[in-house]
């Protein structure tokens, strides 16, 4: 199996190398050393990543597909998926590794990743939770400088002692003059260049829009003539309308405006177990504010999803578990640490009093929705979720645009978000849920996490940020298939409904985590559904599900009083 794997891949999320990707020969490296030392395989910046030790740790390949992360007694420790490592721990491709609290973080991966190590797709009717999102490869987190290393400190002192105050002030004055002159020259010389670039961009955009319009006219003519439309034609006409979405969200206590953590405590063997509390609504995680947390994990997640343009002014439909993930089933628990402790009360210092033995199983908390939490610090409280960031990248580009949540649906897994970009070409929506039959051909487009990712090295033309950077290009995937059956709920407001509510069951096999929120087209190029879940395997068969587009169209209507 290892003969098919070509490279170790390190995708930097946070730190001086954020958004950069490093690759190492899989068969030529049995270990990757991590640190600020010049001898480190994965070397971190000695001036910026100051929480990293010179020889912080290493990743060791113990077998063809077996890996272990070792902490070299580093001062600030190593965290795997937000949990601190004690000595060493097994890791898998896709795990997030962070050197020191608030230090640089990266995703450990191998390329190509074997099928058995692919990230799990969000399942709808399982009793064991799985992750919906693949590891995030873009982050806007800023590294926090917590101190200066010994060598850096000595170098600064030595340099400053050799300067007189008079020379220092003279140098500073000269620098201001030089940079002021350069800034003026640069600004003056680039105005015309920028205007020329803007003009070229507008011309290219107009050409792209005209080509899309011509394609849509041609498709419409075929529809009117009753001619079939190929999968390639539908994909070509709609590629620019399908976007990749990057998300990161957190849960907050409203009154104190504090981020919330889920607390963990060690058992008799030193294993950290999650804490839970019994409420009138059932068992829920024992949450505390960040400033009161002793050992906890932040409630939230990062990941990717898909969406599609539904208006020329930048409105985009996606899943609720993408645009407002705190309003859906939570999968961010450290599942391997179950069972958990039930909190029986608070002591005089306000710390939780635990049951003698951990008894709360994963099945008892599976299905918990963060926005429905009722207790914080052992007391009734109101919580709300917030997107730390919500970014949209258009097909075959790498430029992210800030987006905002407009509204999540109250009745299905749909959300409406918006990006401030105009003159976009929207998809064509068609609500035909009542007439769709089993066996009809459909096409789903999106950005499944298991698909190979294209990257581009982009040279910087900014003199104040000259280093080239590596960016991921959003590469949409087209998945043709069929409707296997139409799953209907009993009535709109009935309390007795199917486990899915209204859904299309599909036979797709090329989708997965990250495809959530992608459009489902009929054979004539109309969007009739939104992909939202999948499950199964090669033995059981791959089954996917899509939401009827009527639930998305409801969010586009002008609100009216009931």
UniProtKB/TrEMBL annotation:
Please state every residue range assigned to the domain named FHA. 32-85
What keywords sit in the KW lines?
Membrane, Transmembrane, Transmembrane helix
| Membrane-crossing segments per the record | 168-187
Q: Which domain of life is it from?
A: Bacteria
In terms of Gene3D superfamilies, this protein maps to: 2.60.200.20, Trypsin-like serine proteases
CDD domains named among the record's database cross-references: FHA
Instruction: Output the Pfam families linked to this UniProt entry.
Output: FHA (PF00498), Trypsin_2 (PF13365)
InterPro entries recorded: FHA_dom, Peptidase_S1_PA, Peptidase_S1_PA_chymotrypsin, SMAD_FHA_dom_sf
Work out whether the entry's keyword set contains rRNA-binding: no
Q: Does the keyword Membrane apply?
A: yes
Q: This chain belongs to which protein, by name?
A: FHA domain-containing protein
The organism is Runella aurantiaca
